[in-house]
Q: What sequence folds into this?
DNA sequence: GGAAGGTATCACGAACTTCGTACTATTCAA
DNA sequence: TTGAATAGTACGAAGTTCGTGATACCTTCC
């Protein structure tokens, strides 16, 4: 394939930087005491993979098992997450969101949705369609 | 403007999640002892804004002044950053990269560049051009 | 059945990070 | 020339990550 130029790559990097910074600043605004990065990622993962175990999460996020264990403790104490011992394998732990946890995830997703909506605002309908198609193509390539 | 659909927004969010995760996992690979997130962002900021002060950085990144001060200490101890008292205003501190710091930033940028290059790989030249144009348009809107 | 070995998780503690409070040094303004 | 404002830092409390070691459970192979 023809290589993208360095300028193109730099533009891409600058855009990602900007988005990441906006994410972070937007998150500071919510009314609740903000969750840290890991905790948010864990809640989102459990929302998408109900009943998963701590080890799945640790592998997925690239952190130590014990770190997920600590984070799970935090989230259980805050009543956002629930541990359950499945009868099938009683070493394991299946994680589920509590109703409060579901509410929190919904709020997070609403915030992200709003951020993305605003991000797309300067594009017209056709451009937006194109951009999302590219992103999907890139993401689904899954290299 | 016509609103993007929820599916479109979800696709966008999934793509960003994926990219963020790839960033994090890629960074764990380098040979050096990895810098934490804040330290990397500080180095990058100083690379683009040579001679800036801690308070500029704190405002830009949305963290406390004292946090930047601690991080600056770390980076000075690791000899990636250098403090300098400008004669013009002797309360202030001007930050500069050391040669080692410049090397570190170059390595980081090379890694990001490679990641972005690989991200663009599944697109053909025309699509890539489009995608980068969209990203630039969105980023420059600067809302 | 039972011992050996592997797996999933947690308890604990060390090292590190963030950030609020209080302080110093310097500049600005009247 | 003081008094207020500004840039930065020292210190300490609270919280986070992760390695080590312990516990409970499952599986396999005699």
A:
């Amino acid at each position: 394939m023809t290589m993208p130029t360095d300028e193109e790559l730099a533009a891409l990097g600058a855009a990602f930087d900007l988005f990441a910074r906006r994410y972070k600043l937007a998150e500071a605004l919510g009314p609740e005491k903000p969750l840290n990065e890991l905790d948010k990622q864990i809640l989102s993962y459990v929302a998408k993979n109900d009943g998963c175990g701590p080890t799945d999460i640790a592998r997925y996020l690239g952190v130590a098992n014990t770190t997920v264990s600590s984070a799970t403790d935090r989230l259980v104490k805050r009543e956002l997450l629930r541990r359950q011992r499945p009868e099938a394998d009683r070493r394991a732990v299946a994680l589920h969101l509590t109703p409060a946890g579901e509410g929190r995830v919904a709020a997070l997703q609403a915030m992200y949705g709003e951020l993305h909506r605003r991000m797309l605002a300067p594009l017209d309908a056709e451009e937006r369609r194109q951009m999302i198609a590219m992103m999907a193509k890139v993401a689904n390539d899954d290299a």
Notes: The mean pLDDT of chain B is 90.
